[in-house]
Structures are given as C-alpha cells and as structure tokens.
Design brief:
mainly beta; 49% strand; 4-stranded antiparallel β-sheet; 124 residues
Amino acid sequence: VQLQASGGGLVQAGGSLRLSCVISGRTFSTSVGWFRQAPGMERSFVGASHRSGGGIYLADSVKGRFTISRDNARNTVNLQMNSVRPEDTAVYYCAAGDTVIASNVASQSAYAYWGLGTQVTVSS
C-alpha cells in the first residue's frame, strides 16, 4: 500500500489550499486520515474519511474551515483547507487503515499505512 500526499505550499492567511492523497496497492474501501505536525509539536489529528461512503470526522480546530472528500474514481481523498491561519502551518500526512472506528479515528495507531508529508505554510 502506498500513499502520496500532494498540494502543499505557501498560502496567505485567509486563503485556501487543497491537499490530495492518492492511495494505491489495495482497494479503496479503507479509512483515510489526515494528520499534521507543526515544528516542535507532536503529530495531531486533522480529519478522516471513514471507509468508502462512511462518515467524515474533523478535529474541532478545523471544523467549519476544512472539509474532506473522496474521489473514488481516482482513489483519492482530498483535504480542502479554507480560511487558513498561521497556526495551520505544519507538515500534513495522510494515512490509511482498515481497523478505524469512531472511537479510534483520531488515533495514529489505528492507521497502518502512512505517506510522506507535504508542507503547508501559512503567512500572516
């Protein structure tokens, strides 16, 4: 299983950015999560798409600003980031797992497969 995140870059505060995670090597019925790690901070949960057609979960810090969507035809899960803030600056990672349930959706240990991150920098 391979995951490839892309779409990161430099954006001004208040702007938008869309990250994409392409998944290959297995069927697309797995749950996909997004995490981020800011400098000097631990990796934290951003949001997740639970299996194919399942629920969407978002961290409180991004609710109302970020959305997650699936493109099944392209085996892709997108993270749409709107109204970004300087505190959204981080390396963003996508991850996949087959044992994700509502109670562990925000736990890194629920995801067996991880992609390399993509840097998002928000300027003030």
